[in-house]
Protein 1
Amino acid sequence: MIPRSLALALSLLAGTAGVCFAQAPTATPAPAAQPAEAKPKKVIDPDLLFKVGVSAGKVRGTGFVDESGKVRGQIVGNPMKTTLGPGEGFRFNGTTDWLVLTDDIATSRAGLPVRDFTVSAWVSIRETTQYGSIIGCAQDNGGEEQGWMLGYSHDAFYFALASEGSNDGDGKLTYLKGKTEIKPDQWYHVTATYDGRLMRLFVNGEIEAESREQSGNVLYPASAPYTLGCYLDRDEKFPMNGMFLEVSVLGRVISPAQVVDEFTPGARLTAYEPSFESTQRFVVKPYLQFATLDGMTFVWETSRPGTGVVEYGETLPYTERSPMGSEGTLHEIRLTGLKPETPYFYRVRTIAADGSEIVSDDLTFQTAVHPDTPYAFTVIGDTQKNEPVISALQTFAYSLRPNFEIHLGDVVNTGADKREWTEELLKASWPLMSRVCMYPSLGNHEENHSNYYNYFSLPSPECWYTYTYGNAQFFVLDTNKPVDPDSEQYKWLEAELSKSTAVWKFAYHHHPIYSSDENDYGDTYKEKTTFGDPRLRVLATLYEKYDVDIAFSGHVHCYERIWPIAQGKVDQENGVRYIVSGGGGGGLESSGPSRAWLTQRAYRGHHICYVTIHGKTLQLQAFDLEGRLFDQMDIKKP
């Protein structure tokens, strides 16, 4: 069974006229006049629930109508019709482009299957993500797992579905993961079927996964959007960076043989391999991640695929070489078995399939220090999109020669915009990050995008994590996610705090527990303020219980040192100290018009903080964009 629209789209493969594939025009003689023939009427499969593509339905302006006529949806952004190799499709930019079939299935379930269905797509993925969606309607938030989705992860396609027959109270999704590795800018035919008992996932005509965990009708959430080209649930959004030629949903299950019939006419599409830049270059120069006493991670990106290796040693020339990494453009290699507290030289090398190489400059790194050794770290937050300021602050930060840096979130302005990572944050921070590690926390502007997880290599589960350095332990949280006492993150944090034996304990996260900001937590020129994020006050209880010394945060684009606070009041003996340091590049903000009871020092300006520690002595300094000291705090434990 070959859909008529796809047959038309693929007709150029046989050398005939078509609309979906590029072909050089050829001169042909004008045909003799022929009697006009009636245009054949398109036959619509009565089980068709939804179909849209270059030759299916009408996609234009701000709306679309699918081929079945049952779905009239909204175009978000500006998907462009574009050519990729032998195929033409709609290009989604990974940031602002997707299609909305239904804003909320609570008001319309047009195009959604009840039980038996087949979902099929011709797609090309330029950039994978942790949770990518081709088409679907699902909610996957904590214990709530409902709906279905055909999508992709970092390395493979998946089919997820929850059914009424396997409902554990709030739903349970089964994820079928494919075996075919997704390669950038290549075409794939992806199909999934469900007949009320059996889930199957096909890639390029082959069955790659199946399951009988689900049964009965699809279990849908009470409220959710139905989208194409964007994973969109209650608290996450991952637009697709790629193309689709055609996507369809059929209200019955087709057989494996019929899946092959649908794939076969486009088999030559999947044989296309994109070309890369003719000259190899560093898209991102090598930088460091996750230093330990005996290990270090190296990350870099090249314009053409290749195999990476790290050369290193305590002296030059290099005496050691890492194992070869896997082939690709984004390279990550972890070295272990290093000497503690030891300076090393390093450089990275990428070798392409044709034997050509690119080699970095000689650089340096140092492993983490022993608990009794003095050390220092810098603090920056809300760099967002401001390359000149980021560059100035990070250059100054490196001049202080810290052992590492912590980032309080909003490392970029738009998480899906790769250029902000490669040309803003990483390029501007490279003088620092090529020599010392950055340990970030997730802000709201990263949008939990895969770029964050691609460019940072952190302890599991990465969205929150803990690590030790010297005589301190750091607890990094994701305050975009729930932190209430019943949440997974809260329980994890209490367990980690309860077993910590570190001399110094630091927590950091993006949103502030306490702040005197003028308008983030109430417009102080018109109304009362909550003096910070009220939903995070439960964390303060943990910090007080387990003797956290300082809690750092950003989000508010200024500097503020809060008086030590315990049980909601200033307590200089037992209170936790709070530092807001969101002046890394974002548009500046101020404290409210009246002095707040909690403020000890406030400052409006781009800045970094610098913390030095030896034993039980700590000093925190804050420097402005010109490197001038504007605040200092000293702590000496008994």
Protein 2
Amino acid sequence: MRRPLLSCAVVCLVSVFCVLAPSNANNGKQSVTFTKDVAPILFKSCVGCHRADHTAPMSLLSYKDARPWARSIKEKVLTRAMPPWPADPHYGEFSNDTSLSQRDIDTIATWVDQGAKQGDPRDLPPAPQASDLWEISKPDLVLTMQEEWKGEATGPDENLEFIVPTGFTEDKWVQAIEFRPGNRRAIHHAVVLIQTPDMMRASQSSESAADDGSSIFRTQGTNRQVRDEVPVVDDGCAARREGGGNNARFALTVFAPGRNADVWPEGTAKLIAKGSKLIFQMHYSKATGKPERDRSSVALRFTRRPVEKMIVSLDIMNYYFRIPAGADNHEVTACSTFKKDVQIISFMPHMHVRGKDMRYEAIYTDGRRETLLNVPRYNFHWQILYKLKKPIAIPKGTRIAVTAHFDNSIRNKYNPDAGQAVRFGDSTTDEMLAGFVDYIVERPREEPAVARINPAIYDSYVGDYLVGSRTCSVVREGDKLLLIAPGWMKAEAFPESETRFFLRAMDARMTFQRNEKGEVSGFVFEMGNRTMQAKKVASGEPGQSRSGI
């Protein structure tokens, strides 16, 4: 079957007329026509977006549609501006490389030079139909937002969450995932998260938590933005605490313009636990200037074979940067260190309209540095999932460094305000640095057995702990030990031993530490690829509950 939405990563032009004079290079060449020679190229590489009611500004499904744009098509393919594939060819080989071959480029250029003739209509291949546009082939299940979003013509961006039940009565391993926007004109980007039953209970326990001012974010409408007074850390890789490295283990998929579907080999999959719900985190923009509606969907195809390997998503982020007003090449970094051997399979850079370029590097334990992906011409309006032809083996201890540059000057035509310093935020007018990475690990074995220990031991762990600038609490409730992070979670910690506990809700581990006096001094919290140190700052009364909220 044709790879239709892959063509959505290969738009062939933008809506700009560029008049080029025909050359004399067509002397003696065989006649090139739209129906016989050019239409097959456009149908393969362009019309996934260049069709009615899609992201591109015009359709290219017919000769009548394409002919007025012939000279612009030639100019864009000759300069390789379109189809968009901004990755540096010197680094990495990618299975979804959408660059046109030189032969295809020459065919289009010759067609234009010869007068952009239509040719015999009988030579025209069948036009791709919209019904063919599932990139993952026939899905096993399509889940759709139950509530329609209705947006006003003007106003700030909206960041909203829509909960979609799965109805799963057993664990499901998903081998292919495709997000289908209900309205591409209105969606800035979307993230689909998995909320397991344990996570639902944790979320419900912390929903009433008040903002105690310790958050680095302030909220404006439905958007988060880093507070002005938060310390600035542009070089996250040099910080004592890495500027990024959040484990997005429960992220099912991400959508942005230009990103195509997730399809993995049989036997490799993501897990959706029974009873889970999906959370559609939707970022809607008001770019069209008119009222818009949306009801988006996600399509799933389940694995047909026993699962041996699991896909994990990692977002390497820096929340603390600040881009000065007028800066035209401001550098920001973020890093994350792998705690186990993994195989990287894909990358997806994400910034907003001031984003200029992004580079991923592996820094090995012996000091070697290797560029894995370089995107020297980042385009916010066309964000690509770069799928490696072959997975990259990354040994334990390797650090992934993401380096980005931002243009906050008046020379950036997309810059909404060059006179303002910019920090991390959800809105398009704010900025982000997120280097998404998908990698493969062995399917985890069954969770550890719960050890039998005297609950009285829990009393020494009860108290408040400082993690960075935020406080969490360890609480004993009867024979249970709970970890409470205000506004985030309340989860039970199950003992593996007297000092090591695991959290089912977050697939995490915490290991308590004692000082030379034998007193509990803190704990190490491990979740996926991230390790955090918590320092004990206050103790509770033995046997008493502490709300931590």
Protein 3
Amino acid sequence: MDIKKATVALGLMAAVYAGATKYEAEEATLADGASAKGTYVDLNQGSISFDNVSVDAAGKYTLVIHCAGAYGEKDNNIVVNGAAAGTFHVDEGTDYVDISTSVTLKAGANTVAITSSWGWIKVDYIEINSFESKAFNISKTLVTANATAGAAKLYGFLVENFGQKTISGIMTGNMDNYTLNKDFKTHEDVADIYTRSGKYPALVGFDFLFSTGPNASGSWNKAYDQKALFLAKNLWSQGGIPAFSWHWKDPTDKVDAFYATQTAAGDGKEYTTFRVSEAFVSGTTNWNKESAAYKGIIADIDYIADYFLQLQEDGVAAIFRPLHEAGGNWFWWSNSTTGEQYAALYRLVYDEMVNVKGVKNLVWVFNPEASLDVSWNPGADYYDIISVDIYNNDNDHSSNSSTFDSFKEKWGTSKMLALSENGPIPDVNNMHTDQAVWSWWMPWYSSWSGKWPGQTANSVWKSNMDDERIITFEDMPGWENYTPTALPRSTVNASNQIIFLNNTLSLTTTAGNISIDIFDLQGNRVMSLHKGPLSAGTHQFSLAGVARGSYIVRAKGTELSATRRIVIK
């Protein structure tokens, strides 16, 4: 987020207007090329600073920006008292529209500035109104049916803490300096946070950056993957939270790149011209299953799904954020893509992983750009959490509350909100003052010459990580004995009810009618082990006659829903 400092000058004359306080743009302080045009201001690439925006009491207020996207759709920044307060989006059009968002103001005089990101809008005036907060009504169940116990515990932990505490995180980058099978705390990006704050982050991010593409089979790429997977297992075993992203390379393997433009990739670097539209029947969002594009997409999804199945077999759950920064034209999955096409691709990733491959250990995240149109929404049945990526300037620890509130307004209140990428961390006091308490935050890495953890001073790192409202690794309860109150106990305990050893399946359950089925990894039922009453206790079933391979066991009953991947050797 590129914030230009607004010039502070003369105060404005304010008038009471229809129950709101109105401030005219042409009476504001203009800088960096913003130009008054009689009754409105052309922002151009400058800034409009409304000085002396006065309120009687400190708190949250609704900011209305009366503006027009006369030069095309644009995103621009809101700065309050020198700190970033979020962004706002204006669709293309010559008619003036009201854009509403929220800001936190101090009692007395404030400075509210509109600064250029894309610039080039017309601004007539702003209004300050009272703010009415919408309560969250978070779903108590995962979107994935028969999710593993680990996933249920992880989701329950997120639900229990949302709005009260924020989980600390860090993204990992370089793996060359990490020794396979060593403790996750020895990874340089994780250790860096401990050096800065005296505590470890509870959430650690990993990337399938090198898992697909034309070089995926190389020894270095494979080593990177194996290190990331081991770190995720080790982190989970100690009570931490693994979170995966996927910078997905060209699915047709023509170039080793995920960026869709030369500008995004950088001068002289590869970028892909692949577009998701190549996988559809022309003019529709129906998949052309005979196309090379579709086959490449499916092959890549299945490859990543197999990694998640490895984690699932080891009892590990994780957060997964596929197709991130939806709407950004820098990635192929969003470039020259309609909202409907993106939504179809997201649903394909989910359906292939969950319903075909049997991945049940994930908490799914939908990660749109702040200005994204709702047509990009894959549907609330396909994700558990909504997140956004925001990079403020160095030492800008604002809560980004306007984005938080705009997401509530646009996407609804049934999903938790997370800050899935950031530079400076949002200060815990700001988050709670602004009623914008993100589920977690995760600065990008310090390895590979990354600057992002260093955008927060060590003193701020320490004060936040020491605050009881921030969850560090040291605060985590441990997954083995943890039962969240947000989810039914029978769901949480499900994974411990199926044990597979020496080709014998053991199921522990309460009395009732139980069905136990074996499926292949394509979702086809191979056999039914049992259907009907079972007494309370542990029951054993021999699988000695089943062909070697990987399978999914599903057990269902009135108080039971359990899934486990098994390998018959």
